Amino acid sequence: MIKPDNFKDFLALAEKENKKLYEICQKYEADSLEIAQEEIRDRVKIVLDAMKDAIKKGLNSKEKSSSGLSGDDCAKLIERYKKGKSLFSKTCQKVLTYSLATIEQNARMGKIAACPTAGSCGIVPSVIVAMAEAMDFDEEIQINALITAGFIGEVVSEKLALAGAVAGCQSECGVAAAMAAAALAEMCGATNEQILNAAALTLKNILGLVCDPVAGLVEVPCVKRNAFLSVYAVTGAELALAGIQSVIPIDEIVEAMKQVGDMISPKLKESSEAGLAVTPTGLKITYELSQKWQNP
Amino acid sequence: MEKVKTLFDVIGPVMIGPSSSHTAGAVRIGLLAGKIFGEIPQKVSFKLYNSFAKTGRGHGTDKGLLGGVLGMDVDSESIKKSFDIANKLNVEYNFEYLEDYNRHPNSVDIILQGKNIEKMKISGISKGAGEVAVTKINGYNFNINGDYDTLVLIYKDKPGMIYKVTALIQSANLNIASMHCDRNAKGQEASMGICLDGGISNEIFDKLEQIEEVYLIRNIEMLKK
């Protein structure tokens, strides 16, 4: 059977076969790689374990990245929570810390699982792992969630390259947030339609997010953006689980995202020629690092 | 990342951060270069160009390239310590940072010197999302991306060479996915890069190596995804 290249057809197929989206995705994946579905799940578990390992290491480190721009923010958050201070519930505290823990591991050359990219690697793991711990979801449920996340990213990528250099940060951290929202909805027992709504509502609100990293490094604003968007993904799942629907269907949102991505200036697509990268402080950092590293 | 091929291009790869193009890509170029060179070099020089030169240090591109040459894969936690590891192995290394906008934004020349091979120059590019290509070996054009088992040959340019090589491959019932030939001048040296749908046996490799006019042959195994 030819694999659908859009969400509408996938949903119709899942409904017809009375299956969850991750089951359909897992079957196609197994068929295309010519391996058993169990093996797909085993491979997903390897990625999930790598994510958990990155969180664990990140929570225990204050080591700065080689630029010195990031690395000790997760520790600050943990310190605050140790004092019993927070505006958040314990669950959302975990989401936030796990997200920073992962993306800081990335910045300090630790081992991470790109999801969908290295610069957005904190969002999906923090939501799945923190929420699974808080709500006691077993490993099988977490694997279902991670496949659901992958499914969202894979179908979006049929229309839009998941790369800041091609479509801006909306296609990296933005898509990661939609993947995380859908994964969380799946873990909480959402219907297929609610899962797609979680992704749709989340995607809709990050259209136009640009990629303007200071000094071209995956740190400013990427590190804190991962933290913001992981909690934001929880909002997407929460709305969808309440039965709130996206007025614009997800396939149309992806089309809109592509259109917006095409219209974003190349200067705001990973080339560090505009936005935060060329603020006085951004330029000062760029200059200082180029002196330190004797760049051409 | 460009258009996704499988689920594991979205959730994964497991890699050392921070960048798929500037870190994981650098490791994979280094890995391919190390396999093509065929031994741990005594000395290796890297010339990084453009974005690789400008943002390379912040992305660990230097550590990744060196780590790859020493055989580390994209998820090896040794990459961060590759300078120390090279020092322990008595591998001399240096980096130059250059600008040349006729070159790909993320490109590198790797010059390797070893015990058995006096000198080899290998050029590579990182195309994004960890996809890479070795584009030149000793001045000959190649396109080796690690997606296939690939035979690399440099040999004397004379009639019948392509036949001799492909006949041996055919004898193993192996399918050729793609093939790329190049030469500097008629009757001198020429090169062949052959992507195969499957691994080549030691027996066939030995036979290929015994062809008199073959100066250099390497079997570059597909990179782990």
What count of helical segments of chain B does DSSP give? Answer: 7
Determine and state the CATH class of the largest domain in chain B. Alpha Beta
Taking the sheet with the most strands of chain B, its summary is: 6 strands, mixed
What percent of the residues of chain A sit in helical stretches (DSSP H or I)? 55-70%
Total strand segments of chain B: 11
Known CATH architecture of chain A: Orthogonal Bundle
Total of helices of chain A: 13
Q: What's the end-to-end separation of chain B, in Å?
A: 14 Å
User: What order do the SSEs of chain A take from the amino end to the carboxyl end, as H and E?
Assistant: HHHHHEHHHHHHHH
Order of strands across the widest beta sheet of chain B?
Answer: 3-2-4-5-6-7
Mean pLDDT across all amino acids of chain A? 96
The unreliable regions of chain B are: none
User: What order do the SSEs of chain B take from the amino end to the carboxyl end, as H and E?
Assistant: HEHEHHHEEEEEEHEEHE
Domain count of chain B, please report it.
2
Number of strands of chain A: 1
Architecture of the largest domain in chain B, CATH level 2?
2-Layer Sandwich
Percentage of β-strand residues of chain B: 25-35%
Tally of structural domains of chain A = 1
Mean pLDDT of chain B: 93
Offer a quick outline of the entry.
The complex is a heterodimer of chains A (296) and B (225). With 296 residues, chain A is an all-alpha fold.
Overview of this protein structure:
The complex is a heterodimer of chains A (296) and B (225). With 296 residues, chain A is an all-alpha fold. Chain A has a single domain, classed as 2-methylcitrate dehydratase PrpD, CATH 1.10.4100. In chain A, 63% of the residues lie in helices and 1% in strands. Chain A has helices spanning 7-17, 21-33, 37-59, 73-82, 90-107, 123-135, 139-156, 164-167, 173-187, 192-204, 222-241, 250-263, 280-293; one strand at residues 111-113. In chain A, helix 3 (37-59) crosses helix 5, helix 3 (37-59) packs across helix 7 (139-156) and helix 10 (192-204) runs parallel beside helix 12 (250-263). Chain A is globular. The N and C termini of chain A lie far apart (53 Å). With 225 residues, chain B is α+β, with helices and mostly antiparallel strands. Chain B has two domains: 7-138, D-3-phosphoglycerate dehydrogenase, domain 3 (60s Ribosomal Protein L30, Chain: A), CATH 3.30.1330; 149-220, Alpha-Beta Plaits (2-Layer Sandwich). Helices cover 29% and strands 35% of the residues of chain B. Chain B has helices spanning 7-10, 20-37, 51-59, 61-69, 82-88, 161-171, 202-209, and strands at 14-16, 43-50, 92-98, 106-113, 120-128, 131-137, 140-144, 149-156, 176-183, 189-196, 214-220. A six-stranded mixed beta sheet of chain B has the order 3-2-4-5-6-7. At the A-B interface, helix 2, helix 3, helix 5, strand 1 and helix 7 of A face helix 1, strand 1, helix 2 and helix 3 of B. Strand 1 of chain A pairs antiparallel with strand 1 of chain B, so a sheet runs across the interface.
